[in-house]
Amino acid sequence: MTIGGHTRLRRATPTWWYVWMGISTAGVALSLAAMMWNQAGEGDPADWVVRAMFLVAAGVLWFVFGIVGLVSYRAFVATLITPIMVVGWALITWSGVHEKVAWRISKGALERAAATCQEKGPGSKQRIGIYTITHVNKTKDGCEFTTEAGFLDRVGFAYYPGSAPQNTSTRGEYSSSTSYTHHYGPWYRFTSTSSW
User: Strand pairing partners for 195?
Assistant: First the structure.
């Protein structure tokens, strides 16, 4: 570039910058992948928060070195990789593609588990497909699988091959309700809430 008759050469991007930009980019990529896996597999919300904190830390590191790279070295391509990944992650998350893929991967394993419906009490974690199941409840007409995704409520998948389950609600000193929405074939999503 020529300024006032003097030619100014672009400064070479140093190796240390590429190393730190690579570390921050890898940190963002791993955090995004872990958050997507957690959400697709209906994991523990607390785990998602921890992964989001790692994402913020890696994002701050990327921001600092990204500014240095853009201003001092004009390293546009290496700096823009991370924002492109974040936009792609946001689009996938918004579209729900990862949840549909998780269901397709796990559907066969859930159907095999529903065929026997071996009851397991709360807190007995097991992996079925990619879902972490914390409770299996055999009902009169079907089988319910509680995932880790519920924060204050119990949520999961319900298998009712004969007929659709009915929403329930009880009132009194101890109130509870369970609502079902159709998911796929004989499968339903359920949310169960309770209060004192």
Answer: 175
Residue type, 107: K
Q: In degrees to the nearest 10, what's the CA dihedral of 188, 189, 190, 191?
A: -160
Own/partner pairs for 92-100, CB < 8 Å, 24+ apart?
92/36, 93/36, 93/39, 98/36, 98/39, 98/40, 99/39, 99/40
Asked if residues 184 and 153 have their Cβ atoms less than 8 Å apart, the reply is no
Q: Which two tokens stand for residue 69?
A: 């790279």
Between CA 51 and CA 77 the distance in angstroms is 26
- How many other C-beta atoms can be found within 10 angstroms of the C-beta atom of residue 107? 15
* Structure confidence by residue, pLDDT tens digits, 63-111: 999 999 988 888 899 899 999 999 999 999 999 999 999 999 999 999 9
> pTM of the prediction?
0.80
- Enter the DSSP assignment of 44: -
* Position 103, amino acid: W
Closest CA to 102 of 146, 142, 42: 42
Query: HSE on the CB side for 184, CA within 13 Å?
Result: 9
Provide the CB-side half-sphere exposure for 132 (13 A, CA): 17
Cβ(143)–Cβ(110) below 8 Å:
no
